[in-house]
Amino acid sequence: MRVARPVLFAIILAAGFFYFTAHRPATFHTADFLSRPDHVEITEAAGNESLDAEEQNNINIYRKNIGSVVNITSRVQVFDFFYGATSQEGQGSGFVIDKEGHILTNYHVVENAHEVWVTFEGREKRIHANIVGTDKVHDLAVIQIKIPDLRPMTLGDSSTLQVGQKVYAIGNPFGLSGTLTRGIVSSIRAGVREPDGMQIENAIQTDAAINPGNSGGPLLNAHGEVVGINTMIASNGAGQSAGIGFAIPINTAKAVLNDLVTIGRVRRPALGVRTIPIDAELASELGLAADYGLLIVQAVDGGAADRAGLRGGTERAYLGNMPIMIGGDLIVAIDGKHVESQQDLAEVMNHHRAGDTVKVTVYRGKKKLEVNVELGESRDQV
């Protein structure tokens, strides 16, 4: 009986709790502090608040340049096993560079495209564009439209950029047209490899938000001048910006623009030499006049260096197991800039085109010479 009493008491309590919570109608009481006034009193900001200098500059840069930035839609013909030939669309950005309607963008934005269309911010009409020239090596392309009253953007000088400078990106990330983002120059990278294996020399790294669709759009300095062409991001795996974007220096583009517009391709310059890099140990062993530079192993017959009188090697020797010719001129500078590696030489070539004349400083034995060389067109030469 003693055991049954607690059990019976627990059953009664549970039944009572169930009854009062499940069967009694819910009643709500309005809190005493609630009221229904005739109108709501709110605190509003004073009108016509002034902008600070930085905000005003952001606005000025956007207004000055937004009318020159375009959204680019490209159509590529692809073959599907089940459906046959189909079209796929891709998007990117670009910007007007002259009143003739030439627009600069990335090569990968229009690669293999059979149709290209551009749209200006605030306009619904799409305009057909023709591909004028492409440069896969530098990931650059020029397209052209035919409409009046275009406003070209001002091209700046990327060689003066410093880490910490403010930069602005205008483009169409994820197809959201007319977007402005701001950041700084995070670094200047000697070489950054793109997904297709091509390398951007002196790539501008920035933390300004760059996402898919920004490719080909302008990177601007605080004066609203174009200093780079946005081209790629370091992604977190989801294809979105991780705060690390890269742009092609505008000086790289300026060096090839004339060729892209006039002949549709880049006449890549060549010095017309085969070389080996020299360090202090090798210079001592060969008795050279300088402990750095590029030793000309061969001046290609009829090439730029050969025509200018530069000399290749005349005596056979071995560098490890590799036979080389020594006794040629030692290149130590081009246009006054030291040349210590083949990468240095390639960088010089990237800032020139075929037909340009450069001043090459060499040692011939112990004698220092300066030779003017008119660059030839590359035919798989250095």
In short:
The chain has 7 helices and 22 strands. It is α+β, with helices and mostly antiparallel strands and 382 residues long. The strands form 5 sheets. A 6-stranded antiparallel beta barrel has the order 1-2-3-6-5-4. A 6-stranded antiparallel barrel has the order 7-8-9-12-11-10. Strands 14, 15, 18, 19, 20 and 21 form a 6-stranded antiparallel sheet that branches.
Describe the model.
With 382 residues, the chain is of the alpha+beta class. It folds into 3 domains: 63-144, Trypsin-like serine proteases (Thrombin, subunit H), CATH 2.40.10; 158-262, Thrombin, subunit H (Beta Barrel); 269-377, Pdz3 Domain, CATH 2.30.42. 18% of the residues lie in helices and 40% in strands. Strand 8 (179-193) and strand 9 form a beta hairpin. The model has no long low-confidence stretch (mean pLDDT 86).
